[in-house]
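Researcher: Re-running this chain for the archive, since the previous output was lost when a drive failed. Same request as before.
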Amino acid sequence: MIRKLTIGLAALVFAVGCTTVDPVTGERTRNNTGTGAIIGAIAGAAAGTLAGGDDRRNAIIGAGIGALGGAAIGHYMDQQEQNLRERLAGSGIGVTRVSQDRILLNFPADLTFDFNRDTVKSQFIGHLRDAAGVMRDYPQTTIDVLGHADSVGADAYNQDLSERRAMNVSSVLIQNGVIRERVIATGFGERQPVADNSSDSGRARNRRVEVMISAFQG
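Model: Regenerated structure tokens:
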């Protein structure tokens, strides 16, 4: 089951390695991270807390962020793409322009996390801070953090790992200035491979966290 991890407006959990209970769903979720607070709580996508994206849209508007429109979208995303490529050069993070209004960042798991762990590597935090700095400078976008796993191991375990990794990347971005109303983390487990899981190289490509940056449109 694919689940979204919503970044709660008031949830700042500082105890590493403990659990917290989502006040909406009653679901218990771990909050271990090596970079400080985990921000947010797990809510099932089917529960409808973000049905149609209306909740995030309303929250963004409530935070005073205006929507883009018309020709301004392309120019805004062009500038953001250029800045991302400059700031992330040599980091191992892939920057792909998906469409006029969307940019995809690819964080290979082997660079971002130790094997079978969800804590962001300390040596990778600086690159995430650089990415967050650009996202902070271009607030008229939404940020979807997407966790993925390879097919080794149980499906349920891979799903959980992908969720925890997506949430921890989201936490670093928020701690470094990205307005939390813009951010949603989602775990896909092993369901969206980009390569063949039968080879080591394919599995390495499938273990990843992606960040989709989309223009916030009127």
